[in-house]
Design a protein that fits this description.
oxidoreductase, oxidoreductase activity, 207 residues, 4-stranded antiparallel beta sheet, Nitroreductase, alpha+beta, Nitroreductase-like, NADH Oxidase
């Protein structure tokens, strides 16, 4: 079957299949989730947004401290405030995303001692957020290219919170709507072979 005869959903699945092959059997969700830059202007309802964040709420965390926080921008005014601290190259595509989420984590526990697992746990929350978004037909992309200090000042984030990423959330658009510098990169990327990430027993010195 040629790509010209596929409907949009089938086309997207075909593109993923062309770029991603699992070394071992996994649920299709893990391969089909990727990080597009293209977004439509379709709005994300509060119910859908809260469902995505609800999934993140159930991530595992050390001592159940749940260090993650989600600063959400969904109105035009709120998104404009986020755009101001996102780097220009990312602004070329992110301004179409209907929802932006600043992901932060609380660095200390209830008695003021450092929480050494805050970033690890918040990464788990981001992973569940991204998977739930995909299950609902949405796309996500995490952005590290933003001015953290400007974001902290603009959004009044307390010093005891670390800022990790801005997450774009919305419905995937056509790659042709992107700035030309991104169009050829709007495809799912692959992964190195699993065995290259596994160290059995202990790390051996390289020869």
């Amino acid at each position: 079957m040629s790509n010209q005869t596929l409907n949009p959903a089938e086309q997207l699945y075909s593109e993923v299949e062309a770029h991603r092959k699992a070394d071992y059997p996994v649920a299709p969700l893990f391969l089909n989730r990727w990080s597009p830059r293209s977004y439509t202007e379709s709005q994300v309802t509060d119910e859908v947004l809260n469902t995505v964040l609800e999934a993140a709420r159930w991530a595992p965390s050390s001592s159940n401290l749940q260090p993650w926080r989600f600063v959400v921008a969904k109105t035009e005014e709120q998104r404009q405030a986020f755009h101001a601290f996102i780097r220009p190259n990312n602004r070329l595509w992110v301004e179409k995303a209907p929802v932006l989420i600043l992901l932060a984590s609380h660095r200390v526990n209830a008695n003021g001692d450092p929480n050494g697992a805050h970033a690890f746990d918040t990464g788990a929350a981001w992973g569940l957020l991204a998977l739930q978004a995909k299950l609902l037909g949405l796309s996500t992309r995490a952005i590290g290219g933003f001015d953290k200090e400007e974001a902290r000042l603009s959004l009044h984030v307390p010093d005891e919170f670390e800022l990790h990423a801005v997450i774009a959330l919305g419905y995937q658009g056509d790659a042709e709507t992107l700035h030309e510098s991104f169009r050829d990169r709007e495809t799912p990327n692959g992964r190195r072979p699993l065995q290259e990430s596994i160290i059995e027993g202990r790390w051996e010195a390289s020869e």
